[in-house]
Amino acid sequence: MDTHHPLVAVVDDDPALRDLVKHVLGTVGHDALSHGTVEDFLEDERLDQVGCVICDVRMPGLGGLGLLNRLAEDPYAPPVILLTAHGDAQMAVRALRAGAFEFLEKPFRDQDLLDVVQRAVELDSKRRKQRAALNDLQQRHETLTPRERQVFRLVVEGSSNRQIADQMELSQKTVEVHRAHVMSKMFAGSLAGLVRMAVALEVAAGEDPLESLPSLTSGGGAR
């Protein structure tokens, strides 16, 4: 069960605007944090609970674009919605290229804000679930013995049990046992499922999954 209840962070140097946004969010049950500067927001200990940030573009200090730059290298950063009373097409393009989830001009309609916040929170929730699933996958992979990891790699590359046995200088029966252990420990119901897991692990490690699976990409099969 997903027990995460996201907070919405409101970052604006106008107290009246912050109070207005918090009130609008509260009408649909969103709990909100309130900060007058980006710097204060970045120091909040509850950042890991934030599912969406609503930030003014023009403020003393970093401002909205500065926030996007700070969050650019954080893979766990929540979506950022930028607000401005001075918006134009060029500003919107800069914001979106910098990674903004959405760009709204003041004054905005309450429903427009609620709609984009809902989409941002849903995206953050999806990302959290994906990270949790990947973390679980990595933990399962760590339970494999060094030999089982080698079998895992050779299986997803498309090698048959006989080819694996020859390469590892093992009996085919021993390879079959290792392969069964791999499937069981990884909770893989099929070879295709195991390959998808291997690709996810390679991507998470920053490697090229196509490069790591030469037999599959060149038409090889596994038996």
Oligomer classification = single chain
**What's the total helix number?**
11
Largest β-sheet summary: 5 strands, parallel
* CATH uppermost class of the largest domain: Alpha Beta
| Arithmetic mean pLDDT | 85
Strand content: 5-15%
Name of the CATH architecture of the largest domain: 3-Layer(aba) Sandwich
Point out poorly predicted stretches. Answer: 208-223
Classify the fold: give the CATH topology of the largest domain.
Answer: Rossmann fold
Total number of strands: 5
Q: Please indicate the count of domains.
A: 2
The span between the termini is: 37 Å
What do these coordinates show?
- It is built from eleven helices and five strands, in the order βαβαβαβαβααααααα.
- It is of the alpha/beta class and 223 residues long.
- It has two domains: 7-130, Response regulator (Rossmann fold, 3-Layer(aba) Sandwich); 143-217, Arc Repressor Mutant, subunit A, CATH 1.10.10.10.
- The two termini are 37 Å apart.
Provide a short characterization of the protein structure.
The protein has helices at 15-26, 38-42, 63-71, 89-97, 110-142, 146-156, 161-168, 172-185, 191-204, 209-212, 214-217; strands at residues 7-11, 31-35, 50-56, 80-84, 102-105. The protein has 223 residues and is an alpha/beta fold.
Tag the structure with descriptive keywords:
elongated, five-stranded parallel β-sheet, Rossmann fold, Arc Repressor Mutant, subunit A, 2 domains, alpha/beta, 223 residues, disordered C terminus, 12% strand, 55% helix
